[in-house]
Design goal:
11 strands; 13 helices; alpha/beta
Length: about 350
């Protein structure tokens, strides 16, 4: 069964609610936990995991490609990401155009390239929000984990965006090396006027598969973070949601009523489809499986790719028969595939909770 599209006249063959556009594969930070699938692990490409295509289209080709995606899908929410999207010289122009075509546009950026002028253009365009990453309220820890001197840039970007009237969200990636630091990040968010926080526990793909032992958080540390978010979220009026699935077999989500939990969207009626800078389509940011290319195929044909049918049905053996099998699907299966070579492999975070 391919992804089901709800018919809507005037938008081509059907509709999906949201699309992610990756503007570029380039980035000027070097996070050890980076999941970008074009970042090759240390052992390099193999026949099973070939090198992911790099490159980007020129401005008008890029816009034509994105406009075609919007026309064919009817998507009304777009997230722009990368790599670092603002490394494209035409990024702001493309974002401004997107804001004229869809209801909401969100930008995910490291903040290093946000200036007062760019913030003002975002505000005029009506950008819904900008997401910045804060891994610690401690400058040295944040910069070490980001692989760049960037803490001050992130804080400055948050202030400039807020001054311009652009809503800012925070992304916190839970790692072994920043365990216990979420409270400090939430306090910093309070000071900066940030009222939304996306909580990601590390889910390795790309070169992050080489960093699992060093960076993968322990289950107990994630539980402690969720307790912190549940306690401080209402106090600071910060909405906290999980961006990576938290398997309920490991952590009882009902203990944290002020945290919004989510699971993998692949196979659902609201898939988070991703389009890279060359027009290649994937089922999510962590997937290296190319479903097709929107410059060569109709989107409905791409969404009929058998991978989208196989994915939700391929559940790791220990997860079969679980009460949460259909909703959780075994956690982040793309992480299991990237780390252990097959879609049905149990992902690294969940393996911590399995009997030896």
């Amino acid at each position: 069964m391919a992804v089901q599209l709800d018919a809507e006249p005037g938008t081509g063959p059907g509709r999906i609610p949201r699309v992610d556009f990756e503007f570029t594969t380039g980035c000027d930070h070097r996070c050890g936990h980076c999941y970008n699938v074009w970042n090759t692990p240390a052992d390099g490409p193999t026949p099973a995991t070939p090198a992911y295509p790099r490159g980007a289209l020129e401005t008008e080709e890029q816009w034509a490609m994105m406009a075609r995606v919007l026309d064919e899908t009817g998507a009304q929410h777009v997230t722009v990401t990368g790599g670092e999207p603002l490394l494209r010289r035409d990024a702001v122009v493309l974002l401004e155009r997107l804001c004229t075509r869809v209801r909401t546009v969100q930008l995910i950026t490291n903040g290093s390239h946000v200036t007062p002028e760019i913030a003002a253009r975002f505000a005029r365009a009506g950008l819904r929000s900008v997401q910045l990453t804060l891994l610690s309220a401690d400058r040295d820890t944040h910069d070490r984990l980001k692989g760049a001197v960037c803490f001050d840039d992130t804080v400055r970007a948050a202030l400039e965006l807020r001054e311009a009237g652009v809503p800012v969200q925070c992304c916190f990636v839970a790692l072994r090396e920043n365990a216990g630091m979420l409270a400090g990040v939430m306090e910093l968010c309070l000071v900066l006027g940030i009222r939304g926080l996306s909580y990601n526990r590390m889910s390795p793909t790309g070169w992050a598969v080489d960093e699992i032992e060093r960076l993968m958080p322990e289950i107990a540390a994630v539980e402690a973070d969720l307790a912190t978010a549940n306690r401080l979220g209402p106090r600071y009026q910060i909405r906290v949601s999980t961006a990576m699935p938290i398997p309920p077999c490991l952590i009882r989500m009902g203990r944290y009523p002020h945290v919004q939990f989510g699971f993998c969207s692949v196979g659902s009626h609201s898939p988070n489809i991703v389009v890279d800078p060359l027009g290649n389509v994937r089922s999510c940011n962590l997937s290296s499986e190319i479903l097709g290319n929107t410059r060569a195929q109709p989107f409905a044909e791409i969404l009929a790719n058998p991978y989208l049918e196989r994915f939700p049905r391929t559940v790791p053996e220990p997860c079969r028969g679980c009460a949460y099998e259909r909703s959780c699907q075994g956690g982040c299966k793309e992480s299991g595939a990237a780390t252990y070579g097959a879609l049905g492999e149990l992902e690294p975070f969940v393996r911590q909770g399995m009997p030896a």
